[in-house]
Amino acid sequence: MPERPRLYLLDTNVLMHDPTSLFRFAEHDIYLPMMVLEELDRAKKGVSEVARNVRQVSRFIGEMMAEGQAIEDGLPIREPEGLDLKVGSGRLYFQTERLDDGSSLVGDRSLADNEILLAALNLTRRHSDRDVILVSKDINLRIKAAIHGIPAEDYHNDRALDDLSLLYTGMLELDNGFWDQHGTRDSWTEEGRTYYRMGRRPDDDWHPNQCLRLTGENGLEALVREVSGDELVLEVAHDYRRPPNGVWGIMARNPEQNFALNLLMDPDIDFVTLLGTAGTGKTLLALAAGLAQTLDNKIYREIVMTRVTVSVGEDIGFLPGTEEEKMTPWMGALTDNLEVLTESDDQDGEWGRAATNDLLASRIKIRSLNFMRGRTFLNRYLIIDEAQNLTPKQMKTLITRAGPGTKIVCLGNVEQIDTPYLTETTSGLTFAVDRFKYWPHAGHITLRRGERSRLADFASESL
């Protein structure tokens, strides 16, 4: 039996979230109720990401209406200039008739969601030969639609993965049978580092800079440096667990932290993502590596730190001062970790600590995301904290700020997302991890073991 044609009714939040969603439904038609257009019109003013998306949607619709087609017949959905979206043959329809009263279950008609639900009910009655599907990121509207027997779906096109369990972890644990299965073709030492050239089986899925840990008596920690057709090159990881090898006085406490420092201290890796729950050491490791490469090795000119200003609780209102002063309350993680990193010997005294703090303050800059567009960072070490609250578009905006010699480090925990309509599978941090895993100048590791305190560890597991 041939598949029935579909008609997708889009909620306003879908267009606000992804302005290109108009072109993501292949050969199927799209319907926009008048209430959606009204909400778009109300949200078009301002400099927020949502307002920019709304204005882009309006421009897309305006381009499709430019040739003066009859609105009742629908507008052919054409691919915008400069975008390679593989647009199908669908048409865009608007509400051109007044809606009837619909079901008595529909509540307050002054609510936009109920007006959109009423439009879906009317479409279902008028187009019995089609499958009318409501697409919304609002779960409550999808529940209401299900009560009325209307198929409703979340917007799936912006998902990096179908499930978070499929997300690349950056580390692979194997037993010592690895040596027999792959075979060592060559080994050598170069600049104090040991390398192994191994065979590669056709079904292996290796990624550049992937962390490899072999368990057992002859355990080894290594990073995959090259992946070719039938072989791969491993580099033995540097051991940052012992005091002589510490980074700015910080030693790794577990294998994941050791791999993280290997990625952070490698100047050939331009983009690093660290995932992990609270207390796993993400910020501390990133700051320690940044200070070591900025002040000691002189690789970068300064450290730039930023984050999304999304409150956990109620907003406390406007903050006084300059850009850096406004951002300071959001940078508690920076302040706390600097206290650990600037601990000095007793003989240095208060003067020594004050001098160290002044030096760090001159080399660590706090910047707001609001003013990032159009900037270019040259030879900077950029730390993006709480990156799980970024949308994929915001993540792209930030990463494309990188100029020559800049390294970007993204930190976050995708289980603690505070941005509305953003989920674990649609977060910009999830996108970055998934899209960069095949790039030879990027690295990722998921930190699993908390090292903050026994109280924090127990709370993380039990609450």
What's this entry about, in short?
With 463 residues, this protein is an alpha/beta fold.
Overview of the structural elements:
The protein is built from 14 helices and 18 strands. It is of the alpha/beta class and 463 residues long. The chain folds into three domains: 6-153, 5'-nuclease (Rossmann fold); 164-236, no CATH class; 253-462, Rossmann fold, CATH 3.40.50. The strands form three sheets. Strands 3-4-2-1-5-6 form a six-stranded mixed beta sheet. The model is unreliable at 311-316 (pLDDT under 50).
Overall morphology: elongated
Instruction: Specify the number of helices.
Output: 14
Distance between the termini: 51 Å
Oligomer: single chain
> What is the CA-atom radius of gyration, in angstroms?
26 Å
Describe the secondary-structure layout:
Elements: E1 6-10, H1 12-17, E2 29-32, H2 34-42, H3 49-64, E3 75-76, E4 91-94, H4 112-126, E5 131-135, H5 139-147, E6 152-153, E7 171-174, H6 177-182, E8 184-190, E9 193-199, E10 211-214, E11 220-227, E12 231-236, H7 255-264, E13 271-276, H8 282-296, E14 302-307, H9 323-327, H10 332-341, H11 349-363, E15 364-366, E16 380-385, H12 392-399, E17 407-412, H13 428-436, E18 442-447, H14 454-462
Parallel strand pairs: 1-2, 1-5, 2-4, 5-6, 7-10, 13-17, 13-18, 14-15, 14-16, 16-17
Antiparallel strand pairs: 3-4, 8-9, 9-12, 10-11, 11-12
Helix pairs in contact: 7-8, 8-10, 12-13
